[in-house]
Sequence to fold (783 residues):
Amino acid sequence: MNKTVNKSSFFSFVQQRYIYAGIGIVLAALAISTIFRDLVEPANYIGGLLIWAAILELLHGFKRAENHARNSAWISGGITLLIGIFLVNAQLFQAHPLVQMIIALLLVDALRYLYFFFKHKKQDKAIMNYLLPGLGNILIVILISIFEGKGFTWVVALGGALRILGTVYNLFTAKLGDVENVSEDIIEGLAIEDNPGLVALTRKLEAEDEQRARVDLSWILIFVLTLFFIHLGRMGFDRSKFGILSPVVAVIGDMFIALVVAFGIIGPIRSIFRKLNSFFLKTFYNWAHKVPQSEWHFLSLRRPVYWWVEYQLGVSVSMRKSAYSFPTAFRNGLKIGLPFAALLAAIMPVLGMSWYFDTENWASGIWDGYAGSRTEVWRESMVAASGENTGPNAFKLQPKGVPASGDFSFVVIGDPGEGDASQLILKDQLLAVTNKPDISFMVISSDIVYPSGAMRDYERKFFLPFKGITKPIYAIPGNHDWYDALEGFTATFFTPKAAMRAMEARIESDHGLSLTDSDEVRELIQQASYLRKEYQMPTGHQNAPFFQIATDEFVFLAIDTGVRRKVDNLQLEWLESVLKASKGKYVMALLGHPFFAIGEYQGDMNPDFKALHELLRKYKVPLVMAGDTHDLEYYKELPQNNDGHTMHHFVNGGGGAYLSIGAAMARAEDWPTKDWANYPSYDPLVQKIDSLTPKWKYPAWLWVKEYDGYPFSAEWLSAAFDYNNAPFFQSFMEIKVEKSRNRIRLIPYGINGPLRWSDFEYGGAGKPEGAGQNDLVEWVLPM
Fold:
């Protein structure tokens, strides 16, 4: 029974139709304009536009009159949403499998349209409604297949625009429905017209559903507030207005999960079993009413059977009302799904998959996008406020134990700050090595505190784990440290005066729109100073998130690559001036992100990052180290273009965050350099995960072990197997600058002391010639 809107609401629907279509046309125009714009990540941009187009179609589907039209809108919108999500998260996928997944989705949609064309080809608009969309999807598939890897941006832009224009056509031509026809549609859909009792019960439940709406809203509000206060208790408020946003994002995530459960799982299951459900409704209802209801005794089985029938019809009413009205869908989706979302929020951190389904960590994804777009602006304003120029002697630190000429040593540890057993397991070794007499200082490279670098987490995840270190501690931030606009990092590692200037300049760079003000900045600095004093922690020396330590023969450059592997103009000027002035000296560069990691070259992540690599090669920097990837890796980059320059790359990010498994799982023949090594090696890593992975999660591990997590990468799925149980594979590095012997020695440590070659996987000259399996690992590079 198909119904259309009544006259009183006709103009409202027409107006909505033009609004929806107009928004879609704007999105299509933005997609096609990508061809003419110089975007760093065009696939991400087009993916975002497709997500908005998908949301439009999914919402519009609730207003459609016919079951077929509603299902078509949701399927089409769902496919567009998946394509958009794939493009936005392109870096998480293996490159070719990403293209294959998009092609597969487009082919599924094409076949769906062509099926309906042949089924309804006698209809007047069959060509427009079915044939052209099907052929359009096939056209996009052909273009992607031909131009993959060459001129791909314009193909994605054109394909995205065509996909969105198809959505616009559907939005403009679809027949809209009316919420007043709910009970009639349910009666027809369940084929219960011949059962007067069920017909009457359906109409009664529809009336009660309307009356119960306010009660449902109150219940939902209480549930949402309860979840908010749970998240607030876990995440803290940090005594600032900005602090409330993270628990709010977590609650929005809970609501999203509730809607997915209701309409992505429960709804489709009910649709699949609708005929079976109809049979049981009739059978159970008729059986229950063989005896008059007035004669049922209290323990009669007929009573719960009738309650089941009533519950099933009530859910049908809620679902069908949701199909006609988005506000109703939102309310009913939360009513059905919030209990499941609350259960998920309670158990996910315990199950070791918190980076995927714990909505408290989803806030990090929000800050990643926002901070990524502002990092260079913030950093440049902070540096300008420091009072230092960008000359070769700027931002120079002078630890007491570093001589003007001679030997010294220091420690580098990366990505420590989760505050759990994986971080604390290194504490005894870190203290023993760092407090040796010949160690002059320690540097933390990338992600000092997870998940968002907030000051509220510094005591538990930085000051407590590093308590006992007596040498100066310096740091460069990682992407997670920038998520709070670098406030926790700045308060902790900058001098108090530099921190005040830097944070006030950052606020001004946001044109006064920042939610942090000068009073809150003072509180953050005072809190960091208090913790520094109580824990006797030697921090608070820097004027910027980057710095240099130089002797007559050696220069250590710490470079902040922010969120998106970029440096701002002022840092770039400083870097080039130091490199020019350092000719003839041995230069070691420490970055927030590695050029090589997980058995792949990362320099192509964006043009700015590749340009930074080329800059370091231009000045013949021999040693580059970085954090961000949570393990220990070595790559020997051989001379290019006959320049005679060899560059040694180290990933040193195993300081405490969940272990990266990408390098260990990579095939030896796929490594980007001939000479390489990584820790941990494959066998012990697999043995650990095999022994600790529960049966319910083992298929995911088998998927990674046997199929490399296709179409995702094994590295992206690392956090799914983050077990804070022995054996641990965390690590850090001691660097010994020995001018007396004209060499640099790099010595890796694990949880029980120096590592041996038996702990490593390696290829080519990754293991030095003559080194035995039981020998201690040591890379010796000539100065």
